[in-house]
Automatic annotation (TrEMBL):
Pfam families: Trp_syntA (PF00290). The lineage of its organism: Archaea, Methanobacteriati, Methanobacteriota, Stenosarchaea group, Halobacteria. It is an enzyme of class 4 (lyase). GO terms for cellular component: cytosol. It catalyses: (1S,2R)-1-C-(indol-3-yl)glycerol 3-phosphate + L-serine = D-glyceraldehyde 3-phosphate + L-tryptophan + H2O. PANTHER family: TRYPTOPHAN SYNTHASE ALPHA CHAIN, CHLOROPLASTIC, TRYPTOPHAN SYNTHASE, ALPHA CHAIN. Tetramer of two alpha and two beta chains. The keyword Manganese does not apply. Pathway: Amino-acid biosynthesis; L-tryptophan biosynthesis; L-tryptophan from chorismate: step 5/5. Transmembrane segments: none annotated. Keywords: Amino-acid biosynthesis, Aromatic amino acid biosynthesis, Lyase, Tryptophan biosynthesis. This is Tryptophan synthase alpha chain.
């Protein structure tokens, strides 16, 4: 029997739990996929792409997202720039610095997302301090209204509310421990947004159970220890991690170091439901200047190569069990 995860529980709120009529006229609960889970299931194996919003400009990001969508990306992560991106390697750190130098702010980020229209669901990847600092705090509003101040807890709801309003389907927070994720988990549930956690190669036992009890959408499987960045091969830790996670009934997508179609094929063949690619795409952007149309063409071509690789892996891997 597979282990229970957040995504498998019938008490999930919003569009993930509906009621349907039985043949005898009675009602029964029926769980439905979130936007992210549906994208992975319908396009299995899924290709998940990442670029940094505002690198080198917000106008270019819009064109790049559209290129990723045309190329066949099934989910698109947009990095909201933060000054201390601890999980990122040199490539994405440089992209974040370019975006910050261009003046990218959270408000501009959400304006960009408002203006995007893609087939692929969109996620934001950022750091917890950005979420906490966004918008007026609940305590400040209560104080101005003369009400009693609420209990001292992270004020994450303004960010999550804006993310939902913009149409984002998921949030990834690399520096948020599962033990401290309760307020953000609750806010995401209230607004039908998936909260994705990163699972390191060394995570196991009770800590792994705790993470997987909080995750929804997909588990972001870290292919190797260290930071992000394109690599020449697939780490052996990837195979070990997928074996360790096999009993959890949530999609697993592997990232950190994936850069070629052959990598995608090997990862899917090892049992992954999706492949995450970031640095290889950011490298393409870095090799072009602002407003350089060929960058979008190269991104689209790279995504097609990666998606084809993932499909090759599926031809050799067993089909996933249907719920």
């Amino acid at each position: 029997m597979s282990r229970e995860t957040r995504a498998s529980r019938s008490e999930r709120t919003g569009n993930e739990v509906t009621r349907e009529l039985r043949a005898d006229g009675g009602e029964q609960l029926a769980t439905t996929d979130s936007d992210i889970e549906a994208a992975i299931r319908e396009n299995h194996p899924a290709l998940i792409t990442y670029i940094t919003a505002g690198d080198p400009s917000l106008e270019d990001t819009k064109a790049y997202v559209e290129a990723l969508d045309r190329g066949g990306a099934d989910l698109i992560e947009l990095g909201l720039p933060f000054s201390e991106p601890t999980a990122e390697g040199p490539t994405i750190q440089a992209a974040i610095n370019r975006a910050l130098d261009a003046g990218t702010t959270p408000g501009q980020f959400f304006d960009l997302v408002d203006d995007l229209s893609t087939e692929a669901p969109l996620l934001v990847m950022t750091y917890y301090n950005m979420i906490l600092q966004y918008g007026p705090s609940e305590a400040s509003r209560a104080s101005k209204a003369g009400a009693a101040k609420p209990q001292n807890k992270p004020d994450v709801r303004p960010f999550v509310e804006r993310a939902a309003d913009a149409g984002l389907s998921g949030i990834i927070v690399p520096d948020l421990p599962a033990e401290e994720a309760g307020p953000l988990r609750d806010a995401c549930d209230d607004h039908d947004i998936d909260l994705v956690f990163i699972v390191a190669p060394t995570t196991e036992g009770e800590r792994l159970d705790r993470i997987m009890s909080q995750v929804s959408g997909f588990a972001y499987v870290q292919a190797r220890l260290g930071t992000t960045g394109a690599r020449a091969d697939v780490s052996n830790a990837t195979h070990d991690s997928l074996t360790r996670l096999a009993d959890y009934d949530v999609p697993k997508a592997v990232g950190f170091g994936v850069s070629e179609g052959d990598h995608a094929a090997e990862i899917v063949d090892a049992g992954a439901d999706g492949v995450i690619v970031g640095s290889a795409l950011v490298d393409i952007i870095a090799n072009h200047g602002a407003g350089d149309a060929p960058a979008a063409d190269e991104l689209e071509a790279k995504v097609r190569e990666l998606k084809q690789g993932a499909r090759r892996g599926r031809e050799e891997a067993p089909e996933p069990e249907q719920p």
